[in-house]
Design brief:
There is one protein chain. This protein has two domains: 269 residues, Aldehyde Dehydrogenase, Chain A, domain 1; 184 residues, Aldehyde Dehydrogenase, Chain A, domain 2. It contains 17 helices and 23 strands. Strand 4 and strand 5 form a beta hairpin. The strands form six sheets. The protein has a seven-stranded mixed β-sheet, with helices on both faces. The protein is an alpha/beta fold. The structure holds nicotinamide-adenine-dinucleotide. Nicotinamide-adenine-dinucleotide binds next to helix 8 and helix 9.
Length: 498
Amino acid sequence: MSVVHQWIDGAPYEGTPLRIVPIENPATGKNIGEVALASKEDLDHAVEVARTAQKAWAHTSLAKRVAVMYKMRELVLAHQDDIAKAIVAEHGKDYSDAVGEIQRGRETLDFACGINAAIKGEYSFDVSSGVDIHTIKQPVGVVAGICPFNFPVMVPMWMHPIALASGNAFILKPATPTPTASFLIAELYKEAGLPDGLFNIVCGGREMVTDILEHPGIDAISFVGSTPVARIVQEKGCAAGKRVQALGGANNHAIVMPDADIEFAAKHISAAAFGAAGERCMALPIVVSVGGIGTKLAEKVAEHAKTIKVGYGIDEGVQMGPVISAKAKERIIGMIDRAEDAGATVILDGRRFVVPGYEGGHFLSPTIVTNVPRDCDLYTDEVFGPVLAIVEAEDYEEAISIVNAQPFGNGSAIFTNDGGVARRFQMEVEAGMVGVNVPIPTPVAYYSFGGWKDSLLGDLHIHGPEGLKFYTRTKAITERWPSESGTYEATMSFQREE
Ligand code: NAD
């Protein structure tokens, strides 16, 4: 069985792993490989190599850095099929969704190709007599990216193109269940001409995260994952003096107003709730239906959900794969069971679904639950599975108060034909990404991505302009030249000239 090791200094690196753990294909339940979890010594080596490489890279011209990004973009496109297959084998999502993930990731490469324009500083001439001021954005140094299992390519790609293009070295820690695609990306960076030591991979779980958080040679950390881990990363990383951005979990709500086009809403809600088996931080697990339309809406969503072909993501026509593990499946079923026991109605039940030929896979089919009490964990917690819960509200005011009462604030959407209500919603909803008749309002990569409240700890969002801000430090330079300033009198005062 093949073993995935680390990638350090432009090549695979065996090092001294802590232990070796299996990689499972969630559609078959069979082990398809193994991953070696890196030791602290392996991380030390990666950091040392990255620090050395970064010093030279920071002085490499923008033109050369951008040329690597252009080449990388071309290579990712050319190798899309291999990368997508690696994602499907370890994550389980369907092939077209895996391609979609790569395309979304590539948008950040597009942004990085234009970093020379985005990284420009500011200049003011003669702020005082003979004195000019300008700003430059310099790299932070060595940055680490700690990533979740659910987007093995897109989430790291929210980070490394901008980090690298702006002059940093990058150390990626992929999620243990889905490491392989990251190694294909590492090979492509090498082929694109990125100097060795700038893109490194260390595999591992909680121990490796702790080592990264404590490592004095790492300057900044981008984390994407669940909120409890985001909290640990933010607290420990900041305590160790690092710059940290930590994107957490979600429990996205959409409001459906009685004036909405119900057919349109149902079709889009079905896709948003069940796409990637609900394993997206921008999935839509909760709908708040307004004005007594809940039953009709649930029936319409169920019509669409029943047409979704569930199976092994590589097979023709499959639109939804398994969840990541037997444990995840069991947890999701437990949440549905408890909601049912508390009085909810399961109008579409995917708990006992089996895909013929893949009996060992961790499959569930789309599940829709109505009359969900708002104190059961199916409502309060992130389900991260193919389950849609519908709750009812009398009017818009009640609906928005339900949405805003929850602790997460990643994405939120409204379905309506009333522009006035849509505008109020945009202003009032407490979420970082908002959709109007768009159930998954994921911004394009030249905007930034991030939630509010428990969905993002720290302040800066990821990728786009805020990503660039995160990976750079601004320096303001005030200058005067003696040949010219000699004509002005020196002053001991701290005041500027009027
Ligand atoms: P996770 O929090 O379990 O793991 C994320 C990373 O943290 C992994 O690399 C993992 O190895 C590490 N980790 C896990 N437990 C740890 C611990 N106790 N201490 C230190 N490190 C630990 O998340 P996941 O299950 O891989 O991914 C799903 C979660 O990620 C969901 O909550 C989802 O909403 C979230 N997510 C958020 C976004 C976003 O943009 N906000 C995007 C994708 C996924």
